[in-house]
Predict the structure.
Amino acid sequence: MWQEKTEKKSIAEQSEMIDLSFSVNCKELPYDHAYELSSEIINLIPDIVNDKRNAIQTLHGPMSGNGWVRADGENIFLSKRAKLCLRVNKLQVDKIRNIEGKKIKLFGNDLSIGKSKTKVFLVVRDLFCRFVSCQEDLPEDIFLEQVQKELGAHNVHINKALCGQSKRIIFGDETLHTRSLMIADLSKEESIRLQEEGVGGQRLYGCGIFLPHKSIDAVSNFKED
């Protein structure tokens, strides 16, 4: 008898979701471009709406810092290192990759979509979200209660959370109100689950997407056993 030993997958590798990043070629875009960008991507790959966890991030230039604090400006200038990042179900990766080589027009600028790479989630204690959609002028304590309730349904238990800036995002003919949010001191399982599930609505328009926060914990020893 000869049996090969099956290598155990990490927590991140076991996730149904994965990050898919595309190189892009575009000179500049308005900071507030989520609605237009996402609408064009959805037109290219309508099936992306079939999983509510799927998400499309906005593009960020060199002034976007770590995403928690950035200088507001009318336009962002995109370097050759800029990436179009989508968070998608692994079963849809091959179909979504069909946008490689496509070109879209945003605010009079051509945006060419290049090759893609996949990346599993990082297992970190602290995660942040640039935009969580919410009601306008919602008190912070009520906002956090709503987030806590939603995430509790996914077995993500919040011990430490910090609200940041409120932002208004142009959403077609309407305005979308958002808050930034950091959630800290997560367990390894909760970290992956939060990145999988996100929070709130409008995931395909850049909202509710959690990313590793650039803190000491994000680069320190928080490895799987």
Q: What stands out?
A: DSSP finds six helices and eleven strands in the chain. The first strand starts at residue 17 and ends at 25. The CA atoms of residues 56 and 86 lie 5 Å apart. Residues 127-219 form a domain with the Alpha-Beta Plaits fold (CATH 3.30.70.1210).
